[in-house]
Amino acid sequence: MLDLYPAIDLLRGRVVRLRQGRFDQVTEYGDDPIAVAQSYAAAGASFLHIVDLDGSRDGAAIQVELIRDIVRSTDLTVQVGGGIRNIETAAAYIESGVSRVVIGSLAVHAPERATELITVLGPERVTLAVDVRSSAGGFSLAVQGWTETAAVSPWKLIENIAALGVDHVLCTDIGRDGELTGPNTQLYTELLGKFPRLKLLASGGVASLEDLRQLTKIGASGAIVGKALYSGSFSLEEALRCCANG
Fold first, then answer.
1. Options 31, 52, 58, 131, the catalytic residue
2. I need a labelling partner for 145 at 20 to 30 A (CA). Which of 84, 110, 116, 170 fits?
3. Percentage of residues in the chain with pLDDT exceeding 90?
4. Is the pTM of this model over 0.85?
5. Exposure b/e, 62-79, CB count within 10 A at least 16 = b
6. Which of 9, 52, 173, 177 is catalytic?
7. Nearest CA among 51, 65, 63, 59 for reference residue 86
8. 126 phi and psi angles, rounded to 5 deg
């Protein structure tokens, strides 16, 4: 069974999708994210993935109040990422009802603060974001809203954070994000081969129900789905049935 996480990406309070994380490649899908979240809940979703794109770009949580209102509008299990750079912001999200906060850049640039955050909140409240670019030489790690390449490898980052007890890893192939070209099963197979006990949330490229079946087959725990839902590649109800049936 694959857990399905429909995504709501927020930019200046609006629901959008970026192409490969580029802020000059924005497609808008409405100005009522609360209604979108409620529609997902009504369709039968159990989980929701929210990204504060303003926060991801600016390095600070920008849309905390809106995200709090979205979280409180449904009974969905919600994880939130984007601009979470300190314990205070992360704790505020948890107190507002968020189940897990997503950290990436913090774990790379300030590992001691990431360690403290994980210790204070508990590893079960944290998801590690591993955003990668594929090349002939392998996989490199992107941070700061995908604007920088980190010196540390994706595998070393996962190893360090997993040692602290975090077992949820959200891995995005940036080159496939918003492209509807299918998920990078090679990347995810390699990740799970190195870290078989982790709960992998796959993100980037999901375009069909068959993609969801392939992610189930390789052992992913969940999948983030955004553009495929907004563009009508399949309905949320169809995706949920597919994930439930394997």
1. 131
2. 116
3. 72
4. yes
5. bbbeebbebbeebebbbb
6. 9
7. 59
8. -125, 135
Q: Which residue type is seen at 118?
A: I
Are 160 and 130 in contact by the 8 Å Cβ rule? The answer is no
pLDDT digits (tens, 9 = 90+) for 114-126: 999 999 999 999 9
Q: For Cα atoms 170, 145, 63, give the angle at the middle one, nearest 5 degrees.
A: 90
pLDDT of residue 230: 92
Active site residue 131: yes
pLDDT tens across 12-39, in order?
999 988 876 678 888 888 899 999 999 9
Q: What is the mean pLDDT of residues 192-212?
A: 96
Sequence-ordered list of residues with C-beta below 8 angstroms from that of 240, at least 6 positions apart, any chain:
4, 43, 44, 45
For 8, list phi and psi in degrees, rounded to 5.
Answer: -120, 110
24 is catalytic: no
Reduce the secondary structure of the chain to three states and give it as a string: CCEEEEEEEEECCEEEEEECCEEEEEEECCCCHHHHHHHHHHHCCCEEEEEEHHHHHHCCCCCHHHHHHHHHCCCCEEEEECCCCCHHHHHHHHHCCCCEEEECHHHHHCHHHHHHHHHHHCHHHEEEEEEEEEECCEEEEEECCCCEECCCCHHHHHHHHHCCCCCEEEEEEHHHCCCCCCCCHHHHHHHHHHCCCCEEEEECCCCCHHHHHHHHHHCCCEEEECHHHHCCCCCHHHHHHHHHHC
